[in-house]
Amino acid sequence: MHTIAKPWMWGAFLIFIMVMLAIDIVVLGGRKAKKMSVTQAACWSLVWVVLALLFAYGLWWYLIPTAGPDLAKATATDFLAGYVIEKSLSIDNIFVFLMIFSHFSVPPDYQRKVLLYGVLGAIVMRIAMILAGVWVVEQFNWVLYVFGVFLIFTGVRMVRSAEKKPDLATHPVIRYVKNWLPLTDEFSAEKFSLIDNGKRVFTPLLLVLILIEISDVVFAVDSIPAIFAITTDPFIVFTSNIFAIMGLRALYFLLADMAERFHFLKYGLAMILVFVGVKMLLADWWHVSTSGSLMVIAVIVLGSILVSLMATRKTD
User: Fold this and answer.
1) Is residue 21 part of a domain?
2) 2 assigned to some structural domain
3) What value does the mean pLDDT take over residues 96-100?
4) pLDDT value for 62
5) Residue 208 located in a structural domain
6) Model pLDDT for residues 142-157, shown as the tens digit of each residue
7) CA–CA separation, 221 vs 128, rounded Å?
8) Structural domain of 193
9) Number of domains in the chain
10) 8-state DSSP, 183
11) Mean pLDDT, to the nearest integer, of 202-220?
């Protein structure tokens, strides 16, 4: 696999992620039953954005003497474009998280632990999916056209289902889990399971965690092909994904109470998927620079946010 990263860079990044998770768990009380305040969520979201920008600067600074200024600039831009794509598409995951938590009436104090375990599971799954995706692209370059068609289809499907609210009560995963696992009717603090009359039973919080993990797999199937329109370097794909995932919990608590105000954001995300899909299909005839793609995506996201806020303000 072609990559700009040395083995030590992979190791250093994984250590960095483990340190940040430790800070979250120990310093920010990630294992305690407490809701992250809006102020804390805003500060932590800003921290992850700043860290992503510093990481891009670090890539550029490291590659200038070793690979030249042109490759250094291109790599840093690829990372930023990938990060913006993943960060933008992750907003749709927040809407799904909110729907799952609302359906099961999960107390806000318990949501943080579920999302923490969700992030840990997502990191493991992303490593496997990204490495597999890069290998497939390198072996069968034509698969990029398949990704392009898939992204366009997903974008159109997102528009068609934007106004629909799925019924989780009939979700096949929920029916399957309820048939195979003994579930309690009530939550028991933040426990996923407990002993009742000498038998191991599971709380609804485990069912919520399973749905969160599955939703992230679905999200990854949409987002990982999108970043292949920017780069196939596994290090850039992985790091941009992880930075977006690590900031997802804080972003959730920041936007959860005002998700209804971002009504048109899903349409903007659908436009991003269609744009990236078209870009992949026409790559041989129509070249859009990474910086150009970054600008288009930023304009779509900011535009849909502004339209949403203006529309909800008139409603209010």
Assistant:
1) yes
2) no
3) 83
4) 92
5) yes
6) 888 888 888 888 888 8
7) 12
8) 7-315
9) 1
10) B
11) 85
**21-35, 63-77, 200-214, 222-236: which has the minimum mean pLDDT?**
21-35
- The whole-number average pLDDT for the span 22-49 is 74
Q: Are 192 and 206 in contact (CB under 8 A)?
A: yes
CB within 8 Å of 59: residues ≥ 6 apart: 4, 72, 75, 76, 79
Amino acid (1-letter code) at residue 146: V
| Mean of all residue pLDDT scores within the chain | 82
Beta bridge partners of 195: 200
273 CB-contact burial (10 Å; exposed 0-12 / middle 13-18 / buried 19+): buried
Q: Where are the beta strands (DSSP E) in 123-252?
A: 193-196, 199-202
The whole-angstrom separation of Cα 248 and Cα 250 is 6
- The 3-class SS string of the chain reads CCCCCCHHHHHHHHHHHHHHHHHHHHCCCCCCCCCCCHHHHHHHHHHHHHHHHHHHHHHHHHHHHHHCHHHHHHHHHHHHHHHHHHHHHHHHHHHHHHHHHHHCCCCHHHHHHHHHHHHHHHHHHHHHHHHHHHHHHHHCCCHHHHHHHHHHHHHHHHHHCCCCCCCHHHCHHHHHHHHHCCECCCCCCCCCEEEECCEEEECHHHHHHHHHHHHHHHHHHHHHHHHCCCCCCHHHHHHHHHHHHHCHHHHHHHHHHHHHHCCCHHHHHHHHHHHHHHHHHCCCCCCCCHHHHHHHHHHHHHHHHHHHHHHHHHHC
Residue 167 has what DSSP assignment? Answer: -
Two tokens at 231? 């780069």
Q: Is residue 1 part of a domain?
A: no
pTM, entire model: 0.83
Confidence of residue 316 (pLDDT cuts 50, 70, 90): low
Span 167-197, pLDDT tens digits:
666 677 777 777 888 888 788 778 888 888 7
- Residue 99 structure tokens: 């729907």
